[in-house]
Amino acid sequence: FYTSEKFEILAISILAVLIGLALWIFHAPNPNMEHAHLNSVWPAPAIEIADIIMAIVLSFFLFTNTWRCFTNVMGDLKGKIPFELYVIQAKEFIVNFITQKKFGECTDRMQWVIHLLIMTGYSAIFMMVVIFLAGGIELIGLAWEPIRFQRDVIYPFFHPWRLLGYYATFALLYGTTYAMIGRIKKKKAPYKNSHATDWMFLILLQLTTLTGIFIHFTRLLDWPLTTYILYVFHLMVAVPMLVLEVPFAKWAHLMFRPVVLYATSVKEKYLQQQQEAA
Asked: pLDDT tens, 33-59?
């Protein structure tokens, strides 16, 4: 998949068309054309079911690949190291995953800032859309309207969801734009050798962010048809990015780096204890 640019573009295009057709075919019978009410066309609980299925499938690939990465790093020591040592060193994974502090040790700290912006912005949007789209897990009755992300009543400006959405939009647009300009200029080491998947991920992520904030604006303006069209285009971009680009490249990268650092710290701590005991 990642060795052929043409096949990558074709796969993304086919999946995008399928998503568009699915949204066109499967929608509520009486959409509200007087007000921009997304739930009158595609109810949040129905979209949530698709979200859950997608999250389960992507999580399976992510965690199985992460486990394989972990076992490769640990080697024969995996079964010999006491369980409590894994627990004690877990802070290494948590700190590195949240802060990406290894990037902060680079001479050019701007790379750490950009990486952190994209990571936190992406994680925030993923949480709101996948976990809180319908206010929890509507499928099993665990949902709360005041924290529902997709709802027809606009949140006040200072509501946490709205502020978090604005932050994520800024973080993703600034981060992706900076990375794109860097890849065009090719002056910094991280941007000198870009793979086609790097460009595809950045383009899809920026389009997803732009269409998402445009939907927010058209809802504020109460433009129903424009909102519904943008929603379709938004998912036609977002789903291929999540399904084809993220789990095997960029999303895995967010997990693999802290996992490798965590596994390495466990091994080093264990070997140090063995030397002290000898």
From this structure: 999 999 999 999 889 888 888 888 888
* Three-state DSSP state, 102: helix
Instruction: Take residue 40 and report the two structure tokens written for it.
Output: 């009158």
**pTM (2 d.p.):** 0.86
Tell me the two tokens of residue 245. 């680009």
Q: Which two tokens stand for residue 25?
A: 């075919």
Distance of CA 4 to the CA centre of its chain: 24
**φ, ψ (nearest 5 deg) of residue 134:** -105, 20
In this model, does residue 1 exceed pLDDT 60? no
Burial readout 51-84 (b: 16 or more C-beta within 10 A, e: otherwise): bbeeeeebeeebeebbeebbeebbeeeeeebeee
Residue 222 DSSP symbol: T
Alpha carbon distance, N-terminus to C-terminus of the chain: 50
Q: How far is CA 264 from CA 8, 92, 113, 260, in A?
A: 34, 10, 25, 6
DSSP characters over 246-273: IIIIIHHHHHHHHHHHHHHHHHHHHHHH
By residue count, the chain amounts to: 278
Find all residues with CB under 8 Å of 230, minimum gap 6, and list them: 211, 214, 215, 218
> Contact 40/152 with Cβ under 8 angstroms?
yes
Count other C-beta atoms under 10 Å from residue 123's C-beta.
Answer: 15
